[in-house]
Amino acid sequence: MIRFRLAKAGDVPALRTLVEKAYRGDTAKRGWTHEADLLDDERTSDAELAETIAAETSRVLLAEVDGVLAGTVTITDVGQARAYLGMLCVDPDLQAEGLGRALIADAEDMATEAFGARLMEMTVIDARLELIAWYERRGYARSGETRPFPNGEAVPFRMVVLEKDLS
Question: What total of structural domains would you count in the chain?
Fold first, then answer.
């Protein structure tokens, strides 16, 4: 059984473990999409997750399958009826079963209800063409904009901006 709920401060350790498992290292390679072959640093930190969970302008949605944390997504109010969708991940052993789609749908509804968002945006590493295509199949479109890789890291990637009309 899948249950969705908002993250609390006490969820940080398990949430961080899930994010690192899904994005980096050999565990990520068990899933259909990951960054493990592109990046080897840590995806996030306990402090960053705690700050995001505590922020009034963000919501961290968790998906639990049979009581075990299995997925997450973050939405952030960026103003002007726009929200940002980030850090979507599903346990690599549970990918390709519809949980990511369900998380996105719930996050889109939450962005509309909590922030009055009419547009959702996200960024994806330009080298992750299979992931960009997956989002496009979910109604997201390339905006034509790219942004530098976050945190000022010296990597050969740009971030492709995708958008979806929520109205």
Answer: 1
The CATH number of the domain holding residue 152 is 3.40.630.30
CB of 119 closer than 8 Å to CB of 83? yes
Dist CA 119 CA 166 (whole Å): 5
The pLDDT tens digits for 73-87 are 999 999 999 999 998
Amino acid residing at 6: L
From start to end of the chain, where are the E strands?
2-6, 58-65, 68-79, 82-90, 119-125, 141-148, 158-165
Rounded to two decimals, the pTM is 0.85
Q: Distance between CA 70 and CA 90 in Å, rounded?
A: 6
DSSP3 helix / strand / coil % (the chain, rounded to 5): 35, 35, 30
- Containing structural domain, residue 26: 2-165
